Structures are given as structure tokens and as C-alpha cells.
Amino acid sequence: MDLKGRHFLTLKDFTPEEIQYLIDLAAEYKRKKKEGIAVDTLRGKNVALIFEKTSTRTRCSFEVAAHDLGMGTTYLDPSSSQIGKKESIADTARVLGSMFEGIEYRGFEQSIVEELAKYAGVPVWNGLTNEYHPTQMLADFLTIQEIFGDLKGRKLAYMGDARYNMGNSLMIACTKMGMHFAAGAPKRYFPEADLVAQCQEYANASGGSILLTEDPMEAAKDADVIYTDVWVSMGEPDRVWEERIKDLTPYRVTTELMGAAKDTAIFLHCLPAFHDLKTKIGKEIKDRYGLNEMEVTDEVFESPQSKVFQEAENRMHTIKAIMAATLGA
Ligand code: CP
Ligand code: NVA
To answer: Would you call 150 a catalytic residue per the annotation?
Structure first.
């Protein structure tokens, strides 16, 4: 499998075999990390990490993975670079592409990361846009594979805002890999019709399926994986909280909802999660709307079924695999 020189912008661009290869490569890197085996075959190379939105997992994963591979990193935050303010994306891409072997971008529209990829001349990796979060998918699927031993035929139920980066990306990833994707959400939070049609084609080829339903119990029924995400994503205005709480509270992941899934089901969340009052925003929402927890109850988040920290660790191993494969480690 040769992915050298490829961009990693959305899983739409990758075949099921390529996705499986990256997941297996990540498992191999994870084993080597645990065994203390050095993998610094990309010594002398450097990568630029552009973050127009905040991050804990993605930034740390790119930095640690790059360092493990022997590479240097430069982190560019929204306030300390010229990007988009004084310098266009196309010009930025040509400058960074002349100094770095690869570029990570986290930010807003998918068209921005596509523009970077068009002009950079080096691999560009999508570290989250409004539309997609493809590096998260590999971590999620490595976790599912570690726990169940396989992906094909498994059912993943996503609860909440299914038309944004996580819902879109999970629908793509599931249907590519022969899994059954269900979204439990009010109709206006369903993914866009064009993307659903495209994913239906992936499902036809892979043996997967898509179910979009307003009934949370129907979505969760017999699922192997129950998945949710924050109700308000980065970059969205504060004023949407009220309608999201009203619209999405019926889709909160509770012990009762987990009960509709298989006995062996696991809970995943890309994180960060609002499951208690130990965050600034969590406290503000409590003061404004009286909620103690949002998209997932603390009981489910802290239960043995919750594999969210295994999933978070897998961000690093999978991002390492993506950089290694596209840079030809
Ligand atoms: N899941 C995820 O992308 O986390 P960060 O926002 O912390 O990078
Ligand atoms: N939908 C969330 C995902 C965070 C990893 C966001 O975009 O903020």
C-alpha cells in the first residue's frame, strides 16, 4: 500500500482497503510505542501545525507523533500568524510548503483545507473542519477493532447533531467499512441529502447501511457502539445553546439508552464532553438552563462501557500512521 504524497482531507478520498491499512498501521505503531521500539525514521523532516480553533487531543497527537517519528514541529495559533488576515491561504500554502514536509490544518470550512492542499505541494492533513474530522475516525475505528476484533457488520448509533463534522464523518467511515450507521436526531439535524446519497453508494458496495431516525431508541437498538458529541461545536455562536438544549436533550446518552443497545455495547465520544459541572461552560449552562449534564450522563461517561480514554489515546497512534504513510516513513 503506497500512500506517499497523498493528502488526508476526508475519508471520501480513501478506499476501504486504504482505511483498513491505516488502522492496522496505527495498531503496529501503538504496539511499538508500548514496547519502547524507536520509530524515528522521518528524522530531518518538519511539519507545520495550523490551529484556527482550540485543541487538546489533536494538537498533542500531532506533536507527540511527529516527535516520535523524529520530526520537528511548528505550531501556529490563530493569533500568531498572518493566515487569512494579511495573507491568503494560497500564499500561506506556498510559503509553508517550501519549508515543511507536511501541514496540518484545523479550522473552519473544508474549502480552506482543500485550498491549502491545492497549493502546498506537500501532504496536508485535516485536523478538523466544520464538515469533517477524518483523523478522529481512524482513532474511533482502531478502538472499535481493538474491542470487538472487527468492524464489518457492527452497528454504530450517533446521537445528536448529525449534520456537522462528527455525524458526517462517522456516516462516511461506517458506510465505507461495511458498518451499519444510525443517526438519532431531529430531522433538521440529519446529514445533507447529497452526502447521504453518496454514503448510500458506499454502503451498497460494502454491505453497510444508513438509518436516520427521530426516535433515539430505534437508533440505539442493538447497536455495538453508541456515540455522541457536544451539542454546540467550536465556532458556533453562543445563542444556539438554547435551541440545541431543547432539540437534543431527548437524544442524550443515558443508561436507559445504552440499555437499548447490545449488552456488549461500548460508548464513544470524540471529547471534550459535557458530562458534569467541572468545566467553565458546564457551570454556565447549569446557571442559565439548570442542566447538570448535557450530551451524555456522568453515569454513562464513567461506566465500564465507556471507552473514551482508550479512544483519545488512539488519536496519537492513528495520526502517527497518517503522517508516516503519507510522508513515506
Ligand atoms: N477530539 C478532538 O479533536 O479533540 P481536541 O479538540 O482536543 O483536539
Ligand atoms: N463537533 C465538535 C468536535 C470536536 C472534536 C466541534 O467541532 O467542536
So the answer is: no
Q: How confident is the prediction for the chain on average, in pLDDT?
A: 97
Q: List, for residues 6-21, the tens digit of each pLDDT value.
A: 999 999 999 999 999 9
Can 288 be counted among the known catalytic residues? no
109/132 Cα distance (integer angstroms): 9
> Is 136 a residue of the active site?
yes
Q: What are the angstrom distances between the C-alpha of 74 and each of 59, 104, 137, 215, 251?
A: 11, 10, 24, 46, 40
Mutate to test the pocket of ligand 1, among 57, 130, 269 (most ligand atoms within 8 A of CB): 57
**Size (the chain), residues:** 329
Cβ count near 215 (within 10 Å): 12
262: left (phi over 0), alpha (psi -120 to 50) or beta: beta
At residue 291's C-alpha, the angle toward residues 187 and 285, to 5°, is 90
Task: Give the Cβ contact number of residue 242 at 10 Å.
Answer: 11
Residue 188 CA to ligand 1 center (angstroms) comes to 25
